[in-house]
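Recap quiz, item 2
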Amino acid sequence: MDSLPSHPIGVFDSGVGGLTVVRALMERLPFEDIVYFGDTARVPYGVKSVDTIKHFTGQITEFLLEKNVKLLIIACNTMAAVAADVVKQLALDVPVLDVIEAGARNAVAQTRSNAIGVIGTPTTVNSNAYARSIHHLNPNVRVYSQACPLFVPLVEEGWLDHPVTRLTAQEYLKPVLVEKIDTLVLGCTHYPLLKPLLQELAGPQIQLVDSAVAMADQTAQVLTEIGLANPQRHLPNYEYYVTDIPLRFQTIGERFLGRSLANLQQVKWG
Amino acid sequence: MDSLPSHPIGVFDSGVGGLTVVRALMERLPFEDIVYFGDTARVPYGVKSVDTIKHFTGQITEFLLEKNVKLLIIACNTMAAVAADVVKQLALDVPVLDVIEAGARNAVAQTRSNAIGVIGTPTTVNSNAYARSIHHLNPNVRVYSQACPLFVPLVEEGWLDHPVTRLTAQEYLKPVLVEKIDTLVLGCTHYPLLKPLLQELAGPQIQLVDSAVAMADQTAQVLTEIGLANPQRHLPNYEYYVTDIPLRFQTIGERFLGRSLANLQQVKWG
C-alpha cells in the first residue's frame, strides 16, 4: 500500500526511552499521528549481542509496517547503531530515520573546535556508529566516546539529581572532558533526563546535543521534502504498543513523555 | 522417564546471577553434574510484570525438563518470588527448590532478635515472598524489606568497591538498619559479590545470609533424603545454556562462577 500524508509516523525503541523522541515530535509536529513500539519485555538492548538485537529489530519493524506507517524512526541508539540495515531492507520504500544520524548531523553543524564527545550504552559506543556517521559528514572531526552503562538504571530509578548520579557522571565524563570537546552528544534516549546535571558538570562552554530534538527537526524536514507532511489541523492520534507493562511503567513512561500516557496496548511475543 | 542419581541438577536464572548458586553447588557437591540456563536475551526480569515472568519461567522449565534433570533449582529470586507455582506444576514429580525458601530458612535459623532485613529487586520485594516464607516458618519474626534496583547494574559494571556503590548502598540500607535487625538476607543472586561492602556498612553485629550457600546446603540435604545423590566420584559435567552471548559475557560470567566458563551454548528463542 502506498503511503499517504494522513498515515502515522512509526517510532520504536527497546523500552520507554524512545518516548523522549515522541515528545519532541509532538512538540515539533503537533498534527502528525504517531504509533510507538517499545520492547519492554526484552529491554535493555544495550548489553545484548548484535545478532540478538538484529533479530528483535526485524520483528518490531514488521509490526510497525503492518500499521501502515509513512516513515519509520529508530529512536533507540543501540538499534540504530547495529541494526539500521535490517530496518531499511524490510522497509523498502518507506523512509527510515534514526537518532544516530540526526545527532551526528546536529553535532557536526554545532562544533567549532572539531572535537565532539559522545556518550551512550556499551553496545552503541562499541559499534562506533556515531564516529562513522560524524566522519562521513566531516572527516576532520575528532570523536571521543564513552560508555555509561549506569545512566539508564539511574534514570529509571528517578535519581536525576542525586549525589550518586553526580559522582557516576563525574567518573564517566572525566576522560571525555579532558579532550577539549565543545559538543557532547547524548547518545541514548534516556540521557536527556540528565541534561541539567550533565550541562552543569560539562560547563557552559560545552553544547549538549539532545538527539530527540535533532530527530524531530530532521523528521519535519524529510516529511516536507517527500510531500508526506499531514496537512490536516486535527487532534492527532497516538498509539503505544509495548511487550510488557511492568510495575511503575505508567509513572516512568509519563516522566519520559512529559504528559499522560493513554491508548497503551500490550503485544505478546515469544 | 524416572530420575536417576546420575542425572544432572538443573539450575536457572534470568541471566548470569544464578552462576553464584552453581558455584556454591560445585563446592558443596563436587560430583554432581549441572545444567545451567540463563535467559540473557531477556534479562533483567526484576523490572518486568508478573504475567511476563511466569510465561518466560514456563519456557525455561520445559527446556530443562527435556534435559532429564533430577532436581530443579530456581536460582533467580524474582522467578522464585512470582513464578514458583508455574515451575512446580510443570515439574510434576521432579523436586523444585528455590533461593527464597533456602534464604528464608537460613535467616530464621540464625536470627536471635527476630528482626530480619531483606534486600532484593523491586519485583522480589513487592511480591512479599520472603516475608511470606519467613512468617510461614516463624510468625513472630519481623521482616523489613528494601528494593535496591541499582545493585544489579553496579555489580555488572564491576564497581564492587567503588564510592558510587558505597553511597548507593548507604542510601538503600538506611531504612533497614534503623530497625535493629540482626540478620540481612541478600535476596538477589547478584548481591553476594557486594558482600564485603555490605558487611562493612551493616557492621559486625549483623549476619548476612547468602542464599547461594543456603541453597547448596539445602540441595545436599534433599538429594540425600530422596536417594538421588550421585554416588559416582567422577569428574562432573557442566553445561551452560544462554539465550544471548553479549559482549563481556565470558568475563562477567566467570566473575560470578569464580572459574572458567566452558561448554557454553546459545539457545535461540522468539
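The interface with chain B takes residues 40-42, 47-49, 52, 55-56, 59, 122-123, 126, 149-150, 152-154, 156-157, 159, 163-164, 167-168, 171, 243-248, 268-270 of chain A (CB under 8 Å).
The first helix of chain A runs from residue 19 to 28.
End of item.
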